[in-house]
Amino acid sequence: MYRTVRHAVAALGAAPFVGLSGMPMALAADKPAIDTGDTAWLLVATALVLLMNIPGLSLFYCGMVRKKNVLATAVTAFAVAALVTVLWFAVGYSLAYTNGGAVDNVLGSLSRSFGVGLQGSTHALAKTVPENVFLMYQATFAIITPAIIAGAFAERMKFSAMMWFMALWLLLVYVPVTHWVWGGGFLARMGVLDFAGGIVVHLNAGMAGLVCALVLGKRVGYGHENMAPHNLVLTLIGTSLLWVGWFGFNAGSALASGELAGNAMLNTHISASVAALTWMAIEWTARGKPSVLGILSGAVAGLGTITPAAGYVEPWAAMTIGLAAGAVCYWASIALKIRLGYDDTLDVFGVHGVGGILGTILVGVFATRAINDVNKGQAVGLVDGHGGQILTQLTGVLIVGAFCGIMTWLILKLVDVMVGLRVARDEEVEGLDTVLHGERVQ
User: Fold this and answer.
1) Where are the domains of the chain?
2) Could you tell me which CATH number the domain at 34-437 has?
3) What is the secondary structure of 255-281 as a DSSP string?
4) Distance separating alpha carbons of residues 389 and 195, to the nearest angstrom
5) How far apart are CA 202 and CA 210, in angstroms?
6) pTM
């Protein structure tokens, strides 16, 4: 009986299907564009990237501040997630990822505002997943980028000022830059490569963080009082969540489940590991002990620096990028910060900004035609004899860095006029948890 049924099923599978009219059905023509495997992977990647922000970034940041500012620091990432989600759905996604017609070089249109037209559609960048999934995935990038900036001004900005700044910065800086690089704008047409956010996320957030630190000024007692992290176990847990979530960040940017996503995931893990060991080795040599914070910072530097290159390079190059990330970001967070004298509370510029710049430029060195799914067989990097890509990458860095720096300064000045940027001196001394939220950690 079993054999008879099996043979019958096999015969049916081999024969053409017949519709009610008696005519064969063209199965290939009826195959939907949506791929369930790609869709499932992007849904998972979306959850992983959101995990990076809440709780990952919240724990990573709140463990490094003083106890009196733990709640105020942790809730920032949470509040930003809610705020950015609404703005992204309302207008941000549409302006970033649609064709803007006559102004398409700089900005998209409002054709997808409030989700109009999403039902049953796909995006040109992700043709095998529903567009609502693509929108949600890109929302997680929009959420974490401004949230990263908060580490630079932690322990001294008003909550109201932070909310106004984040909203304006998202719409006036993040959205245009996203369109320039990923939405078909002028940097994309120029040939600038950014696989998962070296320019759009890390350079953008790092430069904004530096400007915030300079405009707000140093914390009360900076350089004179002990401002050591209050709980590095929280920071370690947060870093671990960031590391895992980063697989969604980088491998998810393949926008499909396949070899390209696997390559990006492998490169991400290699770079983070090498950078953590590099930072640890340098600090151990220079200071006699490998600090926990140093190892964690090195891992995050490696994750950020490989981000623009994750899908463009081979694993051996990822190891080289991780080595450079650990050394250069260590120098930026220690020596450069001391030399310039700014108070970037949680080293947003030294780790994310410098890492984003370094990784973006190294794309021009290590991007290879061997990754055919992305580069379509073209010689794109120095390793393939095309050194001009380095100049292209550097041009993208300079344009976005200058734009972000100027716009961030203007937004801060506007918010200062509207609600004031910084809490009063006695409020800062008391702590933001009590002053801004009326609560505190026991």
Assistant:
1) 34-437
2) 1.10.3430.10
3) SSSSHHHHHHHHHHHHHHHHHHHHHHH
4) 14
5) 12
6) 0.91
Q: Which residue has the tokens 């620096």?
A: 305
* Residues 325-361: tens digit of each pLDDT: 999 999 999 999 999 999 999 999 999 999 999 999 9
CA angle 167, 201, 136 (to 5 degrees): 70
Q: Which long-range contacts (CB under 8 A, 24 or more apart) does 72-79 make?
A: 72/155, 72/159, 72/431, 72/432, 72/433, 72/436, 72/437, 73/150, 73/154, 73/155, 73/432, 75/437, 76/147, 76/150, 76/154, 76/162, 77/53, 77/147, 77/150, 78/54, 79/159, 79/162, 79/163
- pLDDT above 60: residue 204: yes
Which among 205, 206, 181 is positioned nearest to 195, based on CA atoms?
181
Distances from the Cα of 252 to the Cαs of 42, 238, 318, in angstroms?
6, 20, 17
* Structure-token pair, residue 333: 């967070």
From CA 316, how far away is CA 301, in angstroms rounded? 18
User: Is omega for the bond preceding 176 within 30 degrees of 0, making it cis?
Assistant: no
